[in-house]
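Here is one chain, start to finish.
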Amino acid sequence: MSELHLMALDEADLQIISACCQDAVMKRGDVRFEEAAGRFILVMNRYAWEAAAKRRGLSLLRRPVKERRRSVLHFDRVTKVRQQNVSMDMADEVLSLLAIRFHVDEAPSGVVELVFAGNATIRLHVECIEAQLADLGAAWSTELQPDHERG
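Its structure:
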């Protein structure tokens, strides 16, 4: 499976990146805001949903591929960062990313909302959507696949 390299310049693009990053895990210490550059960076272990989907499409008899990839997601043109229920001083705290949303303020500016498990949220105030997701190397197998109960 090839490495992902995606860019988001609008809300539809950001939804694709959100789907690719769903259930990514990272340590709080791997999340940072470079205020002078206006860049917000998350280094994560991303569950490769696209690998499982591609394998399922090849054959119904094959087991789905369960793998993670080390990836980096960064947002540019960030003017302010606010967090809720995220401890800034606990570098080893594990965060599990559930979704990325965009709320328009005064187009094209708005707020990118990073929603994590445990009711934690990081909000990025941005001039516009400008994000990139890139895998950093080879994938590794995992026995665990994220499971979302459907109600």
